[in-house]
Design goal:
Radius of gyration: 12 Å
Largest sheet: none
CATH topology: 434 Repressor (Amino-terminal Domain)
CATH architecture: Orthogonal Bundle
Oligomer: single chain
Number of domains: 1
Helix content: 55-70%
Shape: globular
């Protein structure tokens, strides 16, 4: 995962004044998973990526530019 994507997630989260644990609770995942996503250790699947964008009130393409285009085509969303 490109470093820019984790930075965007972190920046959008901080814009809302949320801690990692706050975002994790809204997503229904562990704080450690948010940390892994923000540090680039883990790439969220398409469903979690869409949920992250929704919770952050951003378009999925704004948070994950070009990252999921091919996957979306494969699963026909």
């Amino acid at each position: 995962m490109k470093r820019v994507i984790p930075n965007k997630i972190r920046d959008f989260r901080k814009e809302k004044g949320w801690r990692q644990v706050d975002l994790a609770q809204k997503l229904g995942i562990l704080q450690s998973e948010v940390s892994d996503i923000e540090t680039g250790k883990r790439k969220p699947n398409i469903y979690l990526a869409k949920k992250i964008a929704k919770v952050l009130e951003k378009d999925v393409n704004e948070v994950f530019p070009e990252s999921y285009e091919k996957e979306e085509e494969k699963i026909d969303l």
